[in-house]
Specification:
The complex is a heterodimer of chains A (about 300) and B (about 325).
Chain A: H1 3-32, H2 40-58, H3 61-85, H4 90-111, H5 137-142, H6 146-164, H7 166-176, H8 178-183, H9 188-215, H10 226-236, H11 241-264, H12 270-274, H13 276-288
Helix pairs in contact in A: 1-6, 1-9, 1-10, 1-11, 2-3, 2-4, 2-9, 2-10, 3-4, 3-9, 6-7, 7-9, 10-11, 10-13, 11-13
Chain B: H1 2-26, H2 31-42, H3 47-70, H4 78-92, H5 101-129, H6 133-151, H7 187-204, H8 206-216, H9 218-223, H10 228-255, H11 266-276, H12 284-305, H13 311-324, H14 326-329
Classes of the chains: A mainly alpha (about 300), B mainly alpha (about 325).
Chain lengths: ~300, ~325
Amino acid sequence: MDLVLITGILAAGIRLGMPIALAAIGESVSERSGIFNIGIEGIMLSAAFVGAWGSAGTGSPWLGIVFAMVIGLLLAGFHALMVLVLGVNQFISGIGMVIFGLGFSSFAARLTIAAKPTSIPGLPAIDLGALSNIPFIGPILFGQSPLAFIALVLALAAGWVINRTAFGLEIRACGEGDEVARALAVPVNGRRTACILFGGLTAGLGGAYLSVVQVHAFVENMVAGRGFLAVACVMLGRRRPFIAFLSSLGFGIAEATQIRLQTIYPDLPYQFLVILPYLAAIVALVIGHRNVERSA
Amino acid sequence: MITTRLIRLGLIVGFAALVPAVFVLLAGQSLWRVLTTLVLYAFGPQGWSEVLVHAIPLTLIGLGVAFALRAGLFNIGGDGQFIAGTVVSVFFAPYFGGLGLVGLLAFLTCGFIGGAALGALVGYLRERFNASEIIVTIMFNYVAVQMVSYLIRGPMADPMPFWPRSYMIPPDCILPVLVPGTRLHAGLIVALAMVIVFAIIQHRTVFGFQSLVLGANPGAAIYAGFRVKALTVLVMAVSGGLGGLAGAVEVGGLYQRIVDNMGEGFGLAGIAVALIARLEPIAIPFAACLFGIFFAGGGALQRELALPFPLVWIVEATVIFAVAALHWALPDRKVAA
């Protein structure tokens, strides 16, 4: 394999993995506090639509991204309400959220941006001048969208907060044994709500990345399992945000590789390549999740 | 006490009514018109049979989801198992030509086996490698969609393909139409038979009892000496098998072949059906009919009022949330999961 190909795959892989990575950062924090949200697939879909709609309506991709974050917060808040206040099983609430996201995003899109031709202003890559021109590293690391750098900072910051601060210690206490946390007067539901909301925020960013940064359009069901892949990455990363972030980029690279392979082997039915990231997720769970406590 | 419950119940019912209503209003439609269109269609001369036609696969998948969930296993792979059922049954169907009723039963059994194999694999991965069945079933859904897309364009394609679809199954494997002039087929009998079978398995057999214990208290199941690993694999196999049977029934009753995107979304709807029926086999066909009204009626709303079909998913999600929240309003009621 030549260097140009590898550079291309890595650069594209980071781009393709970024929506998963963003969602995985928040989900790992949420799971650290003890609450699963398998509904992030639905949150990402809703955010992908709202982001596209907002940026088409206002003409500003950044405003679209803010809208997407707001819908992420709202839906995650609803999950928190269901699970923490009403005592609903977190997986059932999550599945409800997946179905809602599917319905809301497709329904609303058909009434708005899909009903007439709409151009969605995208987010250009930031120009880092000479840095982007460094061979190999330049296009991979410095040809990325600003959201990619925000994601990196978020992943590192989330890990730091969880491992190095008193707030993070309380979060871990909530996740590992909420009775102890309660006994130590940690406001368990408050901490968990904060973590779930953070999860909604980054899932919203992930959805917006997909529609506003990557595709510059909203396509029905465009998240296509990336939310679930993010949950798988959190399992692989054993709920550590930065490892989950890196695993997500791994899936992005798998996706980029399969897209390249489609052009290299045009005779091979493309379906066998499209399934690679999903199979990779199953294999990774089988190998990587062996000795972790049962997650479901 | 009573007033708290009534207020909470009112909040839930209000929420369940409000959310779909808001989306209908946002779409610029009148609530009254939408409701009357839905009801007139669902209970009208054409609609009632379409409601039942949709309720057939939803009953089967719902039974499967409920059976697994009773055992504490989240089977979100209804879509994938449905596809596995269509593929295996249609693959073997040519061998069943000329066998009459035996051929039909063999055809349906193949569907069950297809879904069961996929379900068993998920159960095995969970027990052997601790891989979350939630994620694994979802991943297999995406894999199955791609594989069937390949098969009906390649090895299993129609010899004269106008559009992507598989070859036809022999006439013996076709489920006959029950009411002339409608699409209502003998899959209804299959579905109702399964409801009875699973009501008996759930409440009257050792297997059903052990799976209930496994779901209610896994520790107790281990302590009681149940073979928990084998039980998990078996429960997932049975659950997946029902999804696969739904696939075979849908092929035998409606399409006579595999077509693109058939049964799309039935897996998720099956979860909703199971939850609304509180995982109780006898209640599942009724919940499935409710969703049959949404599915068939949603199509009618799209045709007649240009109301986008995804409204059905919004309603589905709302119902899931509302039913899940019921035990907040009525705490001493036995609520599954």
